[in-house]
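Summary for the lay section of the report: proteins are chains of building blocks that fold into shapes. Here we show the chain for Methionine--tRNA ligase, cytoplasmic and then a coded description of the shape we predicted for it.
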Amino acid sequence: ITAAADAWARGAAALPKPWQPQKPVLPVEGMRNVLITSALPYVNNVPHLGNIIGCVLSADTFARYCRLRNWNTLYVCGTDEYGTATETKAVEEGLTPQEICDKYNAIHADIYRWFDISFDYFGRTTTPYQTTIAQDIFQRLLARGFLLQDTVEQLRCEDCQRFLADRFVEGTCPFCSYEEARGDQCDKCGKLINAVELKNPQCKLCRGVPVVKPTQHLFLDLPKVSFVLGSGEGLGHRVVPLTAPVRSPQLEEQLEPWLEQSWATGDWTANARYITRSWIRDGLKPRCITRDLKWGTPVPLDGFRDKVFYVWFDAPIGYLSITANYTDQWERWWKNPQQ
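The coded shape description reads as follows.
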């Protein structure tokens, strides 16, 4: 209080001059450099007040505070545009997925401008940089043996000649018998569903009856289970089923010390700590990173070029690619822990 009263008595003339960052904003030696990202809003709808208050406005408040402190600050965001929900919205409105993304990206940008959200850059995930960076990360994982190949049973519509993503299927919930359950979750009882478990499934596109067929997918080998090399593709063929309770020291022993340090020095919520601890306690499991969709980042591997990356693998990379669209020196923000 004494320091505040003293600063007030000395007046505005005694305040440090406002920092004017260069354009584009890049890390500066000797300064506190702050990179702020808002959670990427999904592109298939008009944002409402809850989206703005819970996401971009809180980050905007913090960005303005950082600039008032004369910290060198970059604030980026953008629309998350790949995934099944975009394809579904495109079917509903009779547009292509790209047209849907163009339409709602413009709506989002206009609304945030109206609210005077102080983004340094507002971008999107459907860009060449997104493809380049996502595929580069994929190739690095592949080269290091962190990917697995497996056969998955999936619903296929023979009339549409396509495997159906979860949200392109409706049927009767196997738990509560709700007749309009989606292929990923029942909106009545709230339980998660595997699409092949639905009773009386229907294709949402043509209302035809899909059949269960096998399809090949790629998995991120989170537990880093033992594998033998495949035939020239650099992929592992697992010697245990996906559901086997395998624990491996290779990734988990690297992850646990990092988590302990991050929990001690960071500001994790109690819920985030609890969920993360449960994942570690139960053992990490392989996660599928590909989908039989047309709208997404293409998988650059023979045998999988008709598939795209699953949005949970692809979308977080949007923070990097949006920064890359802002400046070709994006790695100075994302690969520069010293600043």
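Put simply, here is one thing we learned. Residues 225-248 have pLDDT under 50 and may be disordered.
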